[in-house]
Prior knowledge:
Blueprint: E1 2-3, E2 9-12, E3 21-24, H1 26-33, H2 35-39, H3 43-96, H4 99-102, H5 105-113, H6 116-159
Antiparallel strand pairs: 1-2, 2-3
Helix pairs in contact: 1-3, 3-6
Amino acid sequence: xxxxxxxxxxxxxxxxxxxxxxxxxxxxxxxxxxxxxxxxxxxxxxxxxxxxxxxxxxxxxxxxxxxxxxxxxxxxxxxxxxxxxxxxxxxxxxxxxxxxxxxxxxxxxxxxxxxxxxxxxxxxxxxxxxxxxxxxxxxxxxxxxxxxxxxxxxxxxxxxxxxx
Length: 164
């Protein structure tokens, strides 16, 4: 995973069935830079701040959908690598070892787990899943911030503190 210099685009390299992903972070960066304004909410800024946080939420949701799709494709990659190992590499190993060892499911799993392609495919899934969690946390942050803004506005309106 790479970012451009100003942090506005995160690039996930292609791998197997997964094409390269370019995940835009403009809205998120804008929302984070304006997060401090939520603490000292002025009614005149409410609609603009709400718009910024909603845009960041939509951007995070879009990124989460893209990464979620990539996770599904990466799982398919893992299954294909697994089947390649079972059909191509495992028969060669079985010829050299006693039958009591080779008929064991644990043996097959051990052979698969030590395969470099399999390890890379698994690592790719793990990175994508971490990114998915990351974007879901972005969404939760924006939801919480929007909820806070609404409560602040409600409090301001009920108490008549419009000028502050």
